[in-house]
Amino acid sequence: MTSFGAANTNPNKSYEVTQPPTDSISSISFSPKANFLIATSWDNQVRCWEISKNGTALNTTPKASISHDQPVLCSAWKDDGTTVFSGGCDKQVKMWPLLSGGQPVTVAMHDAPIKEVAWIPEMNLLATGSWDKTIKYWDTRQSNPVHTQQLPDRCYTMSVRHPLMVVGTADRNLIVFNLQNPQTEYKRIVSPLKYQTRCVAAFPDQQGFLVGSIEGRVGVHHLDDAQSSKNFTFKCHRESSDIYSVNSLSFHPVHHTFATAGSDGAFNFWDKDSKQRLKAMQRCGQPIPCGAFNNDGSIYAYAVCYDWSKGAENHNPANAKNCIYLHLPQDSEVKGKPRAGSTGRR
């Protein structure tokens, strides 16, 4: 396999976030209202930066941080941009009233690490997905969940575009919920990809979802069987015989194209409707475990750090920087292409 060594972690000349986490970064998420960026890390911390634009230049200012007792795996914002939720290996979710300067409080508990968290404004509830094989829905003013949904296996990934929620678990299960009736599975699908699911992203129009696997492949899946002819899979994050995990799928909030990021250290922009790659970026010197667009799609943030996919024996602390970068996408990179009469697969 390719060795990353001390290779360039910023070949795309992206803006670097100051004072990054001291260990691998597990999630990043932007405020839905302003350019505040949250990152969670294996160093047990949740950090916030304010990003300011000066023409085409970006400046990042560390604003605040909170601690968990163990590594933090996931993060989400409340829709009003005031509050952050974070969960992880201490089996709890903390609610941090960031903008008011308040102290974090525990608002959710599981019996195993919490891998995913999502605020659902249409329900005024927090959804949490755990390796204890459940999803729980929480009214943050109450200590017990309003509903606990059993899953067939450990929750690995979750994406919500109300009323659509897609959950990827171990054993390649993809469970689809209609949140207007959240206590019943709407559909259970075996992943169209042959290997373990790493990430999912619900379409902005709620008509389907993307799924990415450890085997450098993405599936585009429509929920309506009448649209099944539009389903396809494609390869990405591969280099000759080396195959890398697809770690992150993010839809652009305006153009509805999407970004993939992978353990090969690359991020790419794609248009599912014309089945084209819009832009391939240079490979960074370490894997990209997570990426996210800001609320208007003018910034794509991505973390570059060791992702432990090759185990502790391949972790070289001397070379392992933990970086968060900010890329300013050009229109040509993220704007969809007109559909040709008949486009083949990529």
Automatic annotation (TrEMBL):
Q: Name one Pfam family in it.
A: WD40
Q: Where is this region: Disordered?
A: 1-22
Q: Which keywords describe this protein according to UniProt?
A: Repeat, WD repeat
Residue ranges the record marks as coiled coil: none
Q: Which SUPFAM superfamilies match?
A: WD40 repeat-like
SMART domains, per the entry:
WD40 (SM00320)
Lineage: superkingdom: Eukaryota
**Mind telling me what this protein is named?**
Protein RAE1
> Where does this protein come from, organism-wise?
Vicia faba (Broad bean)
Its taxonomic placement starts with: Eukaryota, Viridiplantae, Streptophyta, Embryophyta, Tracheophyta
